[in-house]
Amino acid sequence: MLERLYRASTKSSPEIDFDPEQGILKITGQSYPENPPAFYHDLFAWLKNYLVSAEHAVIVELHISYMNTSSTKCIMDIIYILEDAFNAGADICINWHYTARNRSMRECGEEFREELNVKFNIIPEEISQSTLR
């Protein structure tokens, strides 16, 4: 089994946390690194490798508050890797989380979902008062 893939977030890049034992990938934060393809390269390779031998369902939790155009393409590439695995018989669910006031991220999730067969949930989240401080 592959080891956990973890990358801490920075000001311009999201946290990436893939727990292979649980089959859960979380991408959380903003995504506008200087070179998104280079930033996501390890995740692309790791994910493809993992999906070849995945023994249980894969759940993807996307909590992206902002992404630039290049990052959008990279996230779409990740989703297409998951879609290919789903079409080959893998049990995959993608959860696209957005805050209620972030209409652009909701719309982005809706656009992604239109092109897919994989289970793709769009989940609004409430903004806590502590987040607003």
Automatic annotation (TrEMBL):
InterPro entries: SiaC (IPR018530). Residues 9-124 form the SiaC family regulatory phosphoprotein domain. It holds the Pfam family SiaC. It comes from the Bacteria. This is Uncharacterized protein DUF1987. It comes from Anaerospora hongkongensis.
